[in-house]
Amino acid sequence: MTWSQARSQGRIEQFLQTVPASQVSVRSLDEEFLVSRRAVINERVRSGRQREQIISDLGRNAAVLVDGAHVYVQLLDFGAAMLDQQRETEAGHRRVLGMLHLHYAACDSIAEEFEAQRVDYHGPRMHAVILTPAGPQNVGARARRALEFADAIKRTIEEVGDRTGDGQFRTRVRIGVDSGFAVAVNSGSRDEREPLFLGNPANYAAKLAEGADEGIYPSNKVRREVGIPELHVATRALDVERASRIHVAAFDLGLPGYVTLADRASEEMVARASDAAVARFASNVGSPAAFTFHRHEPPLRGIIFADLKPSNSIRMELASIFGDIDGFTAYVEGCIRNQRVSEMVTNLHVIRSELAATLKHDFGGRKVRFIGDCIHGLLAEGTRTETDSSETVNEAVRVAAGMRSSFELCQQNLENVGGLGIAIGIELGTTPVSRIGIRGDRSVRCSVSKAVTASEELQSSCSGLETALGPRALQYAPAAIRRLFNAQGIATGLDFDAVDTHLSSPTVVSSGQASATAAPYLHGRR
User: Fold this and answer.
1) 48: Cβ–Cβ under 8 A, 6 or more apart, which residues?
2) What angle do CA 153, 156, 160 make, to 5 degrees?
3) What is the pLDDT of residues 106-158, one digit of tens each?
4) Looking at the DSSP assignment, which residues form a beta bridge with residue 72?
5) CA 293, CA 90: separation in Å to the nearest integer?
6) Euclidean distance between CA atoms 428 and 251, whole angstroms
7) Among 352, 363, 371, CA closest to 455
8) Is 0.85 topped by the overall pTM?
């Protein structure tokens, strides 16, 4: 199958009917909400089911406005663990999956101790939110609790890394913390939940977690809330870049106004979490060699994540595709400010659903997850025994073009999203796919490799009109596909009409004409 405007339009209309803005309920997280949710969770536990989080199982037509402290945890030595003498090997993939499996378990153990809401994991990053105690009068208590949580996470990761795998899972940790209002929404199925917190605090905490130096990096807002000195940035426009790279020094737990965790209760908590993580790792994996790989015959849409586990993992050459909605955080902030959260929930539901449907139903790809407003998908063409690298890149570009055309149709059908864009990155490489961490419906869909990292970095460097191919994808791209991209592997406005017209044209276009070929198709207009 291939992309069709009529089919995409029909899906968009259907998605609009499932979550109309007029039927979206929006409420604030307060004590009344917490009491009702805890009652539901406790009843679930009494009936023998797993305990779930406070922000969990929200309906597609529900949104919760949350004033919380956001914590982003980054494992700094993740990339090095993936390589074996500068090469990406099966042993390296076993090692990095084992590392993530161990540390996901450690982070979840600490999150349970703090009643932190683990939003998601993505490769070496964890996103969690401190929601309690609720109320504007408790903003300082939440910020302090977030820093205590960050400190406990960091020390637990370091301890379990030392105790397991002869030190090969040891990693430095960098953590960013910010606080403020965000919108919590949810989608997905029982075994593929898609929790999401939309707004500036999550994005800024993630920025603070970027960088090469370990430590805990609170924003100035968090510093004010706990009563410690702020760091001043001269140019506001450079705040994020400078705060993450230069101006924010590692947080000193001994500063006045902060309750240090160096006490017996804290040490016992970290010890308990470390023991639990190591025990869980031993029972589920035991050693990196316990990750057993097989190949999944294309199309990849047949992958069932519920069936995957360390002993039943996939590893094969494939294309990793990242598509990020450009400008969405600013749009969310505007919706919060102007009380248009219902509109935002509907628009996000439609856009995410249509991008996933394009990947899966039009091209046979498989969505790994949504990371905020970004979709991560996988695609492969070939046989039961071998991936056709050239055809895989060809189809991945057609997927990206179909996604852009679907996104443009969404803009025509939805309100107030005309200023958004979609940035897309594609790279080819051998990639493992598994499900790791806590067993059950809270286990984590995981796909990590150099190709995954590269495709994510490519989309992050693109504007909302650009599609980028990584070096290996360019190497294996058919000549007709390469002509659509400039020397840096970037094409502008590459929607499905542009690709379809180019590939069906008998005219031979030189690579120097690539930008001119793609440019007339900006926003789907000729």
Assistant:
1) none
2) 140
3) 898 889 888 899 999 999 999 999 999 999 999 999 998 898 889 889 888 98
4) 127, 176
5) 9
6) 39
7) 371
8) yes
